[in-house]
Amino acid sequence: MLDVYHAEPGANTLKVLLALKEKGVDFNSHYVALNKFEQHEEWFKKINPNGQVPVIVHDGKVINESTVINEYVDAVFEGPALRPADEYGKAMMRIWTKWVDEYFCPALSYLAWNWMIKSLVKDLTPEEFEAKLQKIPLKEQQDKWRITATEGYPEERLKEWRRQVETSVTKIDSALREHGKDWILGDQFTLADISVFAMAHPMPMGYQDIMNEEDTPHLMAWYNRMMERDGTNAALTMPNKMREEVKLDDRVDVLSKQGKE
Amino acid sequence: MLDVYHAEPGANTLKVLLALKEKGVDFNSHYVALNKFEQHEEWFKKINPNGQVPVIVHDGKVINESTVINEYVDAVFEGPALRPADEYGKAMMRIWTKWVDEYFCPALSYLAWNWMIKSLVKDLTPEEFEAKLQKIPLKEQQDKWRITATEGYPEERLKEWRRQVETSVTKIDSALREHGKDWILGDQFTLADISVFAMAHPMPMGYQDIMNEEDTPHLMAWYNRMMERDGTNAALTMPNKMREEVKLDDRVDVLSKQGKE
């Protein structure tokens, strides 16, 4: 029995959905509405005390952290292997997924939060917002909500995160160019592709000026290969209730402006 | 043939030395003098373009990132297993080592850098310092050197990192108390103990007010068990040339003051 608690396909949720769909694993989907702050409700914090999606419950055992979930999913379920068989290959894959978690994801995530949270909380009174904040278990997450819902991050930090996004895009494009193969590690499609794509997926929408056919042709070709996979299609067509319920205005315009000179 | 490029036993270098010594793996030790900025020299950047230790070269294959190195070392060399045999246990171990990399280590590391770098660069002229900076390959590392060598981080950020260190110490103590076993994951000594200890090792020196017998008895008992291991002793008695050559004054005093109200 596999239960998956997740939001709409995007970011860390998309990472886990991609692995499950690529392996062809059956699971019970439990949608957690981030725009309704369900991840901070008591019932959910009993499953993941950090108050974050995704989290899986497999035969009664709870696992959080999307990167770790994917390694576990690959190890225990049938389906195509998503990790290299040799230990050196595994290490190279781990360096990519670790880099996504520690560098690429935080940079993108801070920029996205800075743009998104105002929209999510705009209908709340200050008292209602404060009540929501009090339910967030991690102090760092509380701070992120408070800052992004009010004044936002300072321009200097937005600029540095944008620079990190640019550096990341160049790094991926160069790696693909240098080995000239289809996937991040070379011939085998792995969790490294899944980790990178889970973050890069919305980029052609908000970062056309740094990720495009001219400047990063190898990255774009890889992106198009990813979009053609059955696993990617199955993951991306999971319900996206936030897109239906919340009007997130002017995404492209805001993302393309913040953090720029 | 295993070559290990490392600094004195501490932080991420200690993490890898502990795993190697626990497994009883023979290796060629290559000491990289951080106080002489050797990690930014061209010969070293040919091995690790990031200009960071530790890095290993095994049968011609280069692996960086201490956490990944340890998983590789455990997988390919003889000696006691440092990871749980079952996949759920592996996932729980990975969540601990990931948390050390993303939370505990950065908080400790920023505080230590803020105190240490001034001592390291105090004999350089501004021109000499700038020349050293230009050799650092990662922009983030350049920024860290520049800030800590001059005005240091703002008090507000030091305070937040100190709070994260306190939160970390409480989290480890609670985990040990709750399961009542000897090691981080329970009965088996694993890479989770190694990752946590590599960071916690200097804490009884600089953070006695938050890590002590009274407030964190389970953490202190675990720390003492760690200190009694042959692997720990073998790693900690590796050459510590920085301690011999650089006088890092008033460590306890500085660390116990910074980031406090």
From TrEMBL, chains A, B:
UniProt GO molecular function: transferase activity
Highest taxon of the source?
Bacteria
Give the InterPro entries listed for this entry: Glutathione-S-Trfase_C-like, Glutathione-S-Trfase_C_sf, Glutathione_S-Trfase, Glutathione_S-Trfase_N, GST_C, Thioredoxin-like_sf
A Pfam family of the record is GST_C
Domain (GST C-terminal) spans: 86-248
Positions in coiled-coil regions: none
GST N-terminal domain residues: 1-81
Q: Which UniProt keywords apply?
A: Transferase
Q: What is this protein called?
A: Glutathione S-transferase family protein
Species of origin: Emcibacter nanhaiensis
